[in-house]
Amino acid sequence: MAELIPLTPASAPTPPAAPARPRRPEWLKARAPSGENYADVHRLMREKGLHTVCEEARCPNIGECWNHRTATFLLLGDTCTRGCRYCAIGKGKPQPIDEAEPERVADSVAHLRLKFAVLTSVNRDDVPDGGAHIFARTIELIRARVPECKVEVLIPDFDGNWDALATVLAARPDVLNHNIETVPRIFRRFRPRATFPQSVELLARARAFDPALVTKSGMMVGAGETNAEVLEVMDALRSVDVNVLTIGQYLAPDSSYWPVDRYVTPAEFAMFKDEALRRGFRHVESGPLVRSSYNAHTHVGASQH
User: Fold this and answer.
1) Is residue 294 part of a domain?
2) Which helix (H) or strand (E) holds 221?
3) Predicted model pTM
């Protein structure tokens, strides 16, 4: 019988190395937030007990946007009922909905003298309407306090509750945004509890509700999709007459999230923009640091022609 030789540290097989994460390129570096306007917006959010997706989702453009005195208000608290694998917003059991939140948001819009406000939210699958009435009430109060202010809503899918969608649409936002996020092949792993067809249907229903409404969607690239699949998503969005498209680089908040597959080059982002415009989108933001609300104040005007 052959002699068994014990494995020593020197002779033990080396476990396979984990795939190396791609190194972040120079074009993905953003300036650290600073400036007087940034400090003022930050102070106001704390005083009013409000949340912004700029902070919760660790947006790389927070300094630029806040210094332009624009911010995306995060409604319905800061805890999401879903476990999407790409999102840095806190997950778990949220606090009860704060019915006074719309008043504070409208006060903040008035204080900041905004001409364009973006409202988004966590998912609130714990309440029947997903928080749709808070969106509607916030729109109404902003219109009452700052009549000249345009309002974009970036809404969740309300778990397919189309009555909830109608509640938001009846408040007449200027832009209805719902992000598709990624391609069908990886959608359910990337966004558990959501489906690609349901998101497309939401955008179709918004268009049917108001043919003049500006509709918008966004996606992240570099999460494992192919460029051909990105073009197929564009076709799906154009099939329901979405007007505005945003495309940005997916950046994992940390190693516990869905991994970055690759860093998409600026040349590819330029190609995406050309392809999207060729397909009939009226306005396209496509670049490494683009996020859904980036330059949102320019989208409503650019898409109405």
Assistant:
1) yes
2) strand 214-221
3) 0.83
